[in-house]
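Q: Could you fold this chain for me?
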Amino acid sequence: MKQTHATVLILFVLIAIPFSAVAQVPLGTAQNFGVLAGSTATNTGPTVVTGQVGVSPGSAVTGFPPGVVVGGSIHSNDSVAMLAQNDLTIAYNAAAGLPCGTDLTGQNLGGMTLTPGVYCFASSAFLTGGLTLNMQGNPNALFVFQIGSTLTTASGSTVLLINNAGVCPTNVFWQVGSSATLGTTSSLQGDILALTSITLTTGATTSGRTLARNGAVTLDSNTVGSCSLVPGGGAPAGGPTLDWIGLAALTILLAVAGLFVMNRSSI
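A: Sure. Below is the predicted structure, expressed as structure tokens.
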């Protein structure tokens, strides 16, 4: 009977941890960057980037000015940019490794209203028109889009967050298997984690980070940066969350405690 009670207790604690608070994508120091590139970061026009701007292992950062960096500085293949790239690799792999909840392969995101979850595309993903993400009042609501190759948004397309309880959304991720291109005057919510490159065409805006592992980030009169990037480089807003490492540690701890209780009860 005591063994049963111990097992039930362990299962209850694990189930009580909300999925959205567990399945985070840990950005590490990359969270402080509005723009992070692998080869070059280039800009044309009066772009405004909130947060750090960096490149590594490349070193070329051009177009600042006329581009403006708010609440950060430029890191050209220095130790800060190198560490951020390492952390970006970890985050990219974490996002790519989450189990797919809904396969949207071949469907256009335009006109959809989605609730928190992991959405996957075997190849390319397209957005024409408007996409609505319903956070359902949960400040830890997690949206992950796993895209096998390219992400392309049409001119004037938008991503809208609703029912966000007035919080700064920090858990929307676009994991892109090759390159992302945002169309003119389009607006995207969330952080782009691209394996190769990211291009923001004229007037495109993103309420999130543009983080490219191997290639270039190319800007043209854009507004870039998450609302969680405060001057000086801040951590995401909202309450504390658990990542996969924390969950694993907690699971092991509970399992050991359960075995101890069961061994004691058998004596």
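A (continued): Residues 1-23, 232-254, 256-262 have pLDDT under 50 and may be disordered.
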